[in-house]
């Protein structure tokens, strides 16, 4: 399923309880990193990957501090491999 905002992503995770989640940093409403923080606070076992064209060091550090990873856009076979490796081995 796909959410169109950070708030919707949080609600969708609460209703569907997926094993993993992906999101972007730039989302309507709250930033994806804030949505990720709230999701991971409620579901610390969740595996979450942030895909974004914003690969600034501050976003990479924030993702790492959350216990997730930031995968750069554009999405490539290598970046999907990085995300899958994280989902399977985190």
Description:
There is one protein chain. The chain has 90 residues and is α/β, with parallel strands linked by helices. It has helices at residues 6-16, 32-42, 57-66, 77-89; strands at 20-23, 47-52, 69-72. It has a 3-stranded parallel β-sheet with strand order 1-2-3, sandwiched between helices. The model has no long low-confidence stretch (mean pLDDT 92).
At the fold tier of CATH, the topology name is Rossmann fold
Instruction: Average the pLDDT over all residues and give the rounded result.
Output: 92
> Overall 3D geometry?
globular
What portion of residues belong to β-strands?
15-25%
Question: Which structural category fits the helices and strands?
Answer: alpha/beta
Distance between the termini: 22 Å
- Spatial strand arrangement across the major sheet: 1-2-3
Over the alpha carbons, how many angstroms does the gyration radius reach? 12 Å
| Largest sheet: number of strands, sense, barrel closure | 3 strands, parallel
User: What is the CATH C level class, in words?
Assistant: Alpha Beta
What would you say the CATH architecture is? 3-Layer(aba) Sandwich
Strand element count: 3
Helix content: 40-55%
- Give me the CATH superfamily: Response regulator
